[in-house]
Amino acid sequence: MFKWISSLFSNKEDAKQSEKSPYAAVKVWFDENNVWAHWTEKEPQSIAWNELIGVAVETTDEGPFVEDVWWHLATKDGVITYPSEATGAGELLQRLQEIPTFNNERLIESMSSTENQTFILWDHEGRHE
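Now predict its structure.
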């Protein structure tokens, strides 16, 4: 249903982005237990899936020549933030969309935003619905 969103972040796009964007140097990946984000020259950050309490997208009015879409994965102890152009962002988006009640409509709305705005796509208390 929302495959066109995923196509925005496909492996082919990740390869193209790595040639074009300095933000592709940020890498995100996951397994069945954890999610990681690794910014160059920093230690990788990780969170456990079972500790995830919220997923949000923040948009800015600074695009299109600088990153203007930022993802935030929150736990009660902190947040992992990564740019939409991070390597692996497409695969992680597909996994996030598997979360029950993930708000794809709000995701679509966020991708058309050109303003400074935060969109809650999922939270454990249902405030995203």
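The chain has a mean pLDDT of 86.
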